[in-house]
Amino acid sequence: METAIEVKPKILNAFAEKFGSSEGVRVFFAPGRVNLIGEHTDYNGGHVFPCALTIGTYGAVRKRDDRKLRFYSMNFEDKGVIESSLDDIKPLSESEWTAYPKGMIWTFGEKGYRVETGFDLVLYGNIPNGSGLSSSASVEVLTGVILRELYGFTDITNQDIALFGQYSENKYNGVNCGIMDQFAIAMGKKDSAIFLDTATLQYEYAPITLHGASLVIVCSNKKRGLGDSKYNERRSECETALSEIQALVDAKSLGELDEPTFEKVKTLIRDDVRCKRARHAVYENRRTISAVEALRKGDLTTFGQLMNASHESLRDDYEVTGIELDTLVDEARKVEGVIGARMTGAGFGGCTVNIVKDSSVDEFIEKVGNAYLEKIGYAADFYVVSIGDGPCEV
Ligand code: GLA
After folding, report:
1. How many CB atoms lie within 10 A of CB 283?
2. How many Å apart are CA 33 and CA 127, to the nearest integer?
3. Is 362 tagged catalytic?
4. Which stretches of the chain are DSSP H helices?
5. The dihedral sign for the CA sequence 30, 31, 36, 41
6. Which of 33, 170, 181, 393 is the most buried (most CB within 10 A)?
7. Which of 94, 333, 334 is nearest to 343 (CA)?
8. Residue 89: its pLDDT value, please?
């Protein structure tokens, strides 16, 4: 995958080509993310354990004197330059990719940081689109950093930008996502994952040392958009289940329950499907806590087993995997040297994350790749990834 040094001249050239010159242009970067464990727990007040990647989104940007906004994405060349204005920013009004940067401008305004002049922006991303590696949250955090740096909103922290990104996603784009993606991206740290309690936003960095193993992401190439997925439905199922349980237990979220308490009160949930959803949220949260404990002790085997259990729960109880992700995980587990394999992100397509012994990576790619192609009919893509830092100016 290309480095920032390689991307910078490329994006500056594209800027000059589209917008006249690259004089005074600044280039920023925000990563993508992968979640190691703790899936669909963030909007349930539970724990997550994601990390930022060295792949992400680059933005070349220059302020304007008027209220115009001009956008160009090197990933969507066919869309050309998209023109807009600061006077044309309305929540829930658009389906173009520009909804992400515009949502952030809107959110900044809502939070008291008004942007009064426009900008020209060229984007280039090397996160596979719709892969569940948070290309949209990456654009949100990138835009947040750009607005802070260009317009002098110096009191805004990276954590604020994460919260603004989530707000924008919820209110401007209508997806009721949790805080995980934006937080992982805005707060990323090289070679560490972030153990985040989404109820309190307390977090700790945990160094990821895989001792002769690698993090391999497999993209199913089954496209997924949160908006048209069952994401919001899962969230409301959990909320209903919680309200039923609250008749007996004083808990503000499913994340506050341990397994024995859940087993005692689950009969209050008046629907079997809803009960399964809540069970996933409770058990996945506990698995995440145990997984981080195991990692701290250097016990990668237990960490991998918990990743596997996470996938099973997402498949059977939360029902967000599907044949593509299940095939990738089933085939991965047949390869010796695979320590753990699970879907990552919202599900319904997207990617799996795997911890694979270095000596088995080639075999893994070959065997899983062939079996997937044969069963599903199109190819999966493989990425051996590194854990990177949060956003920066390039
Ligand atoms: C998406 C959302 C996150 C989180 C995951 C599932 O990535 O944006 O907030 O809920 O799905 O863990």
Report:
1. 20
2. 9
3. no
4. 4-19, 99-110, 135-151, 158-167, 180-186, 231-245, 259-265, 272-296, 300-316, 323-334, 361-376
5. positive
6. 33
7. 333
8. 95
CA distance 377 to 2: 29
Q: How far is the CA of 41 from the centre of ligand 1 (A)?
A: 8
The residue whose two tokens read 């952030």 is: 104
Cα–Cα distances in Å, from 28 out to 64, 123, 225, 335? Answer: 17, 10, 25, 39
Mutate which of 42, 319, 344 to test ligand 1's pocket (most atoms within 8 Å of Cβ)?
Answer: 42
Nearest CA to ligand 1 atom 11: 346
- What tokens were used for 222? 């089954």
User: Position of tokens 């940081």?
Assistant: 113
- Contact yes or no for 390/205 (Cβ under 8 A): no
**3-class secondary structure, 53:** strand
Q: How far is CA 64 from CA 26, 90, 120, in A?
A: 13, 21, 7
* Integer-rounded Cα radius of gyration of the chain: 21
How is 153-166 classified by DSSP, letter by letter? -TT--HHHHHHHHH
Q: What is the pLDDT of residue 224?
A: 60
| First vs last C-alpha separation in the chain | 16
Phi-psi region of 212 (alpha: psi -120 to 50; beta: other; left: phi over 0): left
Is residue 40 in contact with ligand 1, taking CB distance under 6 Å?
Answer: yes
Amino acid 68 reads K
* Per-residue pLDDT tens digits for 313-324: 999 999 999 999
CB 178 within 8 A of CB 190: no
pLDDT at 227 over 60: no
Task: Determine the distance from the C-alpha atom of residue 87 to the mean position of all C-alpha atoms in its chain, rounded to a whole number.
Answer: 30
Is 109 exposed, middle or buried, given 0-12, 13-18 or 19+ CB atoms closer than 10 A? middle
Spatial distance between the Cα atoms of 336 and 210, rounded to a whole number of angstroms:
16
Q: What is the pLDDT of residue 225?
A: 52
